[in-house]
């Protein structure tokens, strides 16, 4: 987190990192070439496996303008609330959701609210 926050701050990258039961979900915002270069570095990081790009889009407004990398470890209670919020039966159905873009955006919006409150 220390290395990430320093790099992100110096390169005008913002975002959010969620952790739940050995899985990370991350949103990165910034200049496209910088983000792609970072994404490839994260992809090759030997500390984790099975990196998947859920969506990539042009942003009008950043969702995390003041966070070099907001971090939250989700509890079962958080995930239960999320399931109700997204109307999902299983956390894993996030992965197989038809419109991953919408699902992941909702997920981050939902948790960014709780992160910003902390
Ligand atoms: C889940 C995860 C998220 C990461 N997010 C970032 C990030 O936002 N910014 C960053 O600079 N490094 C991030 N890293 C670390 C990079 O993978 C990499 O170790 C770091 O950029 C240093 O690169 P280097 O080892 O090539 O020097 C992340 C690593 C993991 C496992």
What does this structure look like?
Strands 2-1-3 form a 3-stranded mixed β-sheet, covered by helices on one side. A hairpin with a 2-residue loop joins strand 1 and strand 2. It is of the alpha+beta class and 118 residues long. It contains 5 helices and 3 strands, in the order αββαβααα. It has a single domain, classed as Alpha-Beta Plaits (2-Layer Sandwich), CATH 3.30.70.100. The model has no long low-confidence stretch (mean pLDDT 79). The chain starts with a helix and ends with a helix. Bound molecules: flavin mononucleotide.
Compute the separation of the termini in Å: 18 Å
Query: Quick check: average pLDDT?
Result: 79
Give the cofactors and ligands.
flavin mononucleotide
Structural class category? alpha+beta
**Total domains, how many?**
1
Which descriptors would you attach to this protein?
118 residues, alpha+beta, Alpha-Beta Plaits, 3-stranded mixed β-sheet, 5 helices, 46% helix, globular, binds flavin mononucleotide
Give a brief description:
The chain is an alpha+beta fold and 118 residues long. It has helices at 2-10, 32-43, 76-86, 93-96, 100-117, and strands at 14-20, 23-29, 70-73.
Please write out the topology.
Layout: H1 2-10, E1 14-20, E2 23-29, H2 32-43, E3 70-73, H3 76-86, H4 93-96, H5 100-117
Parallel strand pairs: 1-3
Antiparallel strand pairs: 1-2
């Amino acid at each position: 987190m220390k290395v990430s926050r320093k790099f992100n701050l110096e390169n005008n990258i913002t975002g959010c990192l969620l952790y739940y039961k050995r899985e990370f979900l991350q949103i990165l915002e910034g200049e496209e070439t910088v983000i792609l270069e970072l994404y490839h570095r994260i992809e090759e990081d030997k500390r984790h496996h099975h990196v998947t790009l859920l969506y990539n889009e042009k942003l009008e407004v950043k969702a995390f303008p003041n966070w070099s990398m907001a971090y939250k470890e989700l509890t079962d209670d958080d995930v239960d609330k999320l399931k109700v919020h997204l109307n999902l039966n299983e956390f894993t159905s996030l992965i197989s959701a038809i419109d991953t873009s919408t699902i992941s955006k909702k997920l981050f919006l939902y948790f960014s609210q709780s992160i910003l409150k902390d």
